[in-house]
Amino acid sequence: MKILIRILFIFFILVLTGIITEFIYYLPSHAFNAFRYYTLYGGGERCLNKLDQYTDDFVSLGTFEKGNCRVKNAVRISSFINTQLSGDLTLSCPTALEVGQYFRDIKAEYVEHIGTYNCRTISRSKIMSEHSYGVAIDISEIDGASIKNDWNKNTKKGAILSNAHKVACSYFSNVLTPDTDKLHHDHFHFDNGYGSKCF
Ligand SMILES: [Zn+2]
Questions:
Q1: What's the 81 CA to ligand 1 centre distance in angstroms?
Q2: Ligand 1 centroid from CA 120, angstroms
Q3: Which residues contact 55 (CB under 8 A, 6 or more apart)?
Q4: How far does the centroid of ligand 1 lie from the alpha carbon of residue 131, in Å?
């Protein structure tokens, strides 16, 4: 009996170490992906009702899954009441709601985005991107201010972007900019995964 307990204890420690190591070093095991997949939150009917306050131009798609990807309570939004979009957004309802509130907060009239739901891993890693769960958006331009050309500039457009960045920190748990790494030289990435807002 004592031996069995010892074996179980060692097994438990190994699994725990596996998850932590995978997370820190982006190793190719699947514990974190599985954990993330099962902990997604869709917000239900209540979220859809709240979304009505921000857009009258959306359709509900329900929950859909594809391989390791899953979007809970998905919506496709063509425009928000005060904000026009370069293309439709496909997002899980709680994230769609935050995006709507955020655009209203920064008074964005036109937003160009280069992606929302997309079933893929994070670049150079085996961990699924938050885009796979419909809780992330990549934005390339806000009201004529381009992240590629106007970020960190001491101009009117630069000010639009620095304000957009500052406000994003109170809405999203991960906010990536051209200052984060080269992969984000031309867009902001905002998502609602595990993260620590801006630091
Ligand atoms: Zn992204």
A1: 24
A2: 10
A3: 77, 79, 80, 81, 100
A4: 6
Q: How do residues 167-193 score in pLDDT, each as one tens digit?
A: 999 999 999 999 999 999 999 999 998
The CATH class, in words, for 41-191 is alpha beta
Q: Which of 161, 172, 193 is nearest to 101 (CA)?
A: 172
How far is the centre of ligand 1, averaged over its atoms, from the C-alpha of 192 (Å)?
11
pLDDT at 124: 81
* 15 alpha carbon – ligand 1 mean position (Å): 29
User: pLDDT tens, 29-63?
Assistant: 577 788 888 889 999 999 999 999 999 999 999 99
The ranges assigned to domains in the chain are 1-39, 41-191
Distance 116 CA to ligand 1 centre (A): 7
Distance from Cα 47 to the centre of ligand 1, integer Å: 23
